[in-house]
Amino acid sequence: MTDRQLPRWSELKPLLRAKPPVLNPTDRRLAKALTIADLRRIARMRTPRSVFDYTDGAAEAEISLRRARSLFANLEFRPSILHDVSAVDTATTMLGQPAAQPFAFAPTGFTRMMNHEGESAVARVAERIGIPYSLSTMGTTSIEDVAAAAPRARKWFQLYVWKDRSAAEDLVQRAASAGFEALMLTVDVPVAGARLRDARNGFTIPPSLTAKTVLDASLHPAWWLNLLTTKPLQFASLTSWKGTIAELLNLLFDPTMTIDDLAWLRSIWSGPLIVKGIQTVDDAKRVVDAGADAIVLSNHGGRQLDRAPVPLRLLPDVAAALRGRTEIYLDTGITSGADIVAARALGADACLVGRAYLYGLMAGGERGVARAAEILTTEVRRTMQLLGARSVNELNPDHVRLP
């Protein structure tokens, strides 16, 4: 028989470790987020359905996005044991300049729609943690305002080439004048992909006050209050638009652009040139031969061509074909720091993350972006330690096996 006794206070006291209350509701929400998936759940609750779906969704049946995420989820890590990993160096270089982490913040359109703090908040977080941030042509904060918000950040400008080439030239000149380091040309949008969530939601920029959105406003009053009481939601690089995203893209973007136009772009931009949207080995070679300083293996987050190649699957072949001739970045499907480590091991110099920080922005503004970055950087470091890699340069294909 077990002998029992009443516990003494001296025995109970060490067990009573009440956490101090977190009074700020935003900080309280974000403290509960341990993963990017947690931030996504918070973002979904705090953001109107059409806005969340614009961020979260992909093209047509969303097969491309699911395949990309599935490949990351099903890969196998192969750790090497008995290494001193007490000190791990996550730093790398991108375009020859230092970056504290092997990832950058990707360009995303209409960012102030997700949260009124918008692109400036993202740039400030990038500045603090020491990684590049790319401002989109379709951003909702001007080139000059982003430069002022984060003067010491490494800033890149993402360019879509419009039918009106003079407009593109003006944007490039403004980016150069504002001190942007690199130009990122996106080449996988000759026409808009069929984003069916947006079509079903009747999504416009800015959101229209229909009976449906008025009802939604009652469920997300804080978001609507911020939208209606802050600077009007406008494009940073063009006049306002009242149609759908697809209609806007098809009106503005130039489907006649070819590889020969890279020479035109080089004639108006003297800095590093990144080409984003590479989906075959042959195209990787073509743009490098045409003078690209870096490429991004990307299917646009699954938002253009459904059933497109999965960038992570393509990565080893591109890395073998280019043999260090240019830097290789990768996006699409990245939801954790472990994904970033896997991509680096398989040949990427760095990754671009987009949805991950947007979920944080929707969940808690600039603090939410910072929380997303904290989650990713913690996961990068921990995964490297568990793999036995003391620096990102030690990561190699032996650490990962693809299914």
Overview of this protein structure:
The chain is an alpha/beta fold and 403 residues long. It has one domain (39-199, 229-401): Alpha-Beta Barrel (TIM Barrel). It is built from 18 helices and 12 strands. The strands form 3 sheets. An 8-stranded parallel sheet has the order 4-11-10-9-8-7-6-5. α7 packs parallel to α18 (355-387) and α17 packs across α18. The longest helix is centred in the C-terminal third of the chain and has 33 residues, at 355-387. The chain is globular. It comes from Jiangella anatolica. Keywords: Flavoprotein, FMN, Oxidoreductase. This is Alpha-hydroxy-acid oxidizing enzyme. Its cofactor is FMN. GO terms for molecular function: FMN binding; oxidoreductase activity, acting on CH-OH group of donors.
Give the percentage of residues in beta strands. Answer: 5-15%
The major sheet is characterized as:
8 strands, parallel
Here the CATH topology equals TIM Barrel
Number of helices: 18
End-to-end C-alpha gap: 55 Å
Please tally the β strands and state the result: 12
Question: What characteristic shape results from the CA principal axes?
Answer: globular
Mean pLDDT: 91
Sequence of strands across the biggest β-sheet: 4-11-10-9-8-7-6-5
Low-pLDDT windows of residues: none
Helix content: 40-55%
**CATH-level-4 superfamily name:** Aldolase class I
Radius of gyration: 22 Å
* CATH class membership: Alpha Beta
Determine the structural class based on helices, strands and strand pairing.
alpha/beta
Helix-strand topology string: HHHHHEEEEHHEHEHEHHHHHEHEHEHEHE
The figure for the number of domains is: 1
CATH architecture: Alpha-Beta Barrel
